[in-house]
Structures are given as structure tokens and as C-alpha cells.
């Protein structure tokens, strides 16, 4: 890492992550992996000085999210992955990461409100304008109802209400179509 060889550093940190050792060192390893993974994901680290290696960032953050020891680091990795996938329009993959943020083991870290809202938005974004998919409509409706119930003062309450109303109307159209 000190030599600036981020590729070798990532491999070494990932190997160190699964080795037993002092908790303070393990936390430092995971935090540094998180930094490197985010830098790769956001294109701040380059291959051959020109090319982004976002896929390496995704793999690094996935390794942290699923094998990390520390809740806060795992949650941050999941949040970064979820947002990256969402922004790319990969709503099915984004939903998996947002659902991971709702794991009770990660409760209390401050991700629940946004994750629950975005989980509903993943279903909502999957709807095609000219097609009525009853399963996706119902899933989105259920997710927004859960969000509005669980987060009555949620940060995205107005957007969730609007999406829920739209989905309820679409569900009615779907039933009429049937």
C-alpha cells in the first residue's frame, strides 16, 4: 500500500481480512479495503494511468459486505454497492444490496430509512410504461406500504406516497385488464 500499488494492496488486504489477528488490525484492514474499493468504484484509481477498474471495486466491496467482521464497514460497503447499482439502472441487483442493509444485524447504523425507500423504488423503476406486470406492481406496493408504516416521518415520505398512489392505480388497471 505504501508503495502505491493498489492492486497488490487490495489482494494483500483481502488475504489479511480472513486471517486471525488483533481486532484493531482487522478493523484497519477493512477500513482501508473500503477506501480502496470506493476509490475504484468511483474511478479515482486507474489501471495503466487511464482506465477505470470499477468491476474490481465492486468485487472488493462485495468481499467486505459478505465477509467483513465489522458491522459499520459491511453496511457502508452494502450501501455503496446498492447506490452504484441503482444509479446504473441495475434495479434487481440494487434491491439485493438494499435488502441486505435491512438485515437486523445492521440495525441502528442509519441506513434503514433510505434502504427501505430505495427497495421500493427498485420495484417501481422496473415497471415498463406500456406493460402491466402485476407481480412487480404488487411487490412495489407492498414495499412502499411497509416503508410508510415503518418510517412515518421518513426522509422520502412524500415520494413514497406518490409512488404508492401510482402503483395502486396501476394495480387497479391491471385487475381491470385481467
Question: Can you characterise this structure?
Answer:
Helix 4 (71-88) runs antiparallel to helix 5 (91-101) and helix 7 packs antiparallel against helix 8 (157-177). The protein contains eight helices and two strands. The chain has helices at 6-17, 23-41, 54-67, 71-88, 91-101, 112-125, 134-150, 157-177; strands at residues 46-47, 51-52. A hairpin with a 3-residue loop joins strand 1 (46-47) and strand 2 (51-52). A two-stranded antiparallel sheet has the order 1-2. It is elongated and about 65 Å long. Helices cover 71% and strands 2% of the residues. It is mainly alpha-helical. 34% of the residues are buried. The mean pLDDT is 87.
Task: Map the helices and strands.
Layout: H1 6-17, H2 23-41, E1 46-47, E2 51-52, H3 54-67, H4 71-88, H5 91-101, H6 112-125, H7 134-150, H8 157-177
Antiparallel strand pairs: 1-2
Structural class, judged by helices and strands? mainly alpha
Which word captures the global form? elongated
Rg for CA atoms: 19 Å
- Unreliable stretches covering 5 or more consecutive residues: none
Number of helices: 8
N-to-C CA distance: 60 Å
Q: What share of the residues lie within helices? A: over 70%
Q: What percent strand?
A: under 5%
